[in-house]
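User: I'm putting together a small comparison set for a docking exercise, and I want a reference complex before I start. The sequence is below, and the ligand is flavin mononucleotide. Could you produce the 3D structure with the ligand included, as structure tokens?
Assistant: Of course. I'll restate your input first, then give the structure tokens for the complex.
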Amino acid sequence: MSVSHLFSPLTLRSVTLQNRIMISPMQQYMAEKDGLARQFHFQHYGRQAIGGGGTVMTEALAVLPDGRVTWHDLGIWNDAQVDGMARIAGLIAEAGAVPATQLIHAGRKGSVGRPWEGYDPLRDDDAAKGFPPYRTVAASAIPANPGWHTPDALDADGIARLIDAYHLAAKRAAKAGFRFLEIHAAHGYLIHTFLSPLANKRDDDWGGDLKGRMRLAIAIAEAVRAGWPNDLPLSVRISSVDDQAGGWAIEDSIALARALKSVGVDLVDCSSGGLGERTTTRMVRREEGYQVPFAARVRKEADIATIAVGLITTPAFAESVIRDGRADLIAIGREALLNPHWPLHAAQALGVDPTFSEWPPAWGWWLEKRSRAARATSTGN
Ligand SMILES: Cc1cc2nc3c(=O)[nH]c(=O)nc-3n(C[C@H](O)[C@H](O)[C@H](O)COP(=O)(O)O)c2cc1C
């Protein structure tokens, strides 16, 4: 058996992940208007849970009803939503992975249709189908893309309600049995609009210089930390760079990571872009591991654990990211939709599990027997 860095455990506060692979949060947009988990979600997360990742992070859960991207998002804004999420946390834990979840307020990227239905802002004809447009909010009244809804700039009361909603959502996530929590502060959603100088044009204490623009992210991290058990890890997903001229830069991410660490955040999950998806200039080329350099810089310069994500699809590359100290965890997104057993296959490819011992025994026993028989046939034994 080979020694692998990817398949070494990682302990965060009181939680130990059996390996360094996280199934990345991926919104499914498959809830009804009540934001409750249903059969599709149980099947989807059961499928991911059994794949061998050290932690499976569910899709982003809306902290308020108007914090949804679409009418079909899962939510955690009320107590009735806890039971369904508890079932998901339970089936992830049952498979041996750490159950993780993520909290979101969509901000100015809310009130849109589902990606496969056009991903356009909702209009009157959607109202006729039962999915009316809803109010969106942001740091400033600037739409995410030309023709999208113009958000209301959040006022002081709205900010206070938002921070409280995150606090309550963190408590509900703990009640549901999740053991790792992430705040979604990336991809152009509400918190990101406060961080980025391109989206935040406020002249009060919640805008202006970097300190003012970081204030909401820090306040939410503090509120979440206060509602989330002290022995459980907390991460924040950021867009490490806006990838637009004059936007948020990697140096800003390093400053933010230091500030987040000082309020009890344990990891920074380093994504990028998304501020206004359709206007992004894409200076960052989308190639294998294109965001890994961000995770590496934040890890080194802010001295905090990081998660690397984005086009990590081969076991050898994933292994090198951990081995070279560029991140503490790697996240697999779309590849896990294609192949939910990616972590189990990676363990075989890296020589960590030649005998299918990491697989559920009801499958692994047969697969090991079959592979032994195939080897015997090929060597004539
Ligand atoms: C269907 C889908 C839904 C996503 N939903 C979320 C989400 O809820 N929260 C989040 O932080 N990122 C979300 N993302 C981004 C992924 O977590 C990941 O960062 C991105 O897909 C890049 O990684 P990959 O190349 O491994 O897919 C989503 C991506 C996809 C494809």
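The first strand starts at residue 10 and ends at 12. The mean pLDDT is 96.
User: Thanks, that's exactly what I needed.
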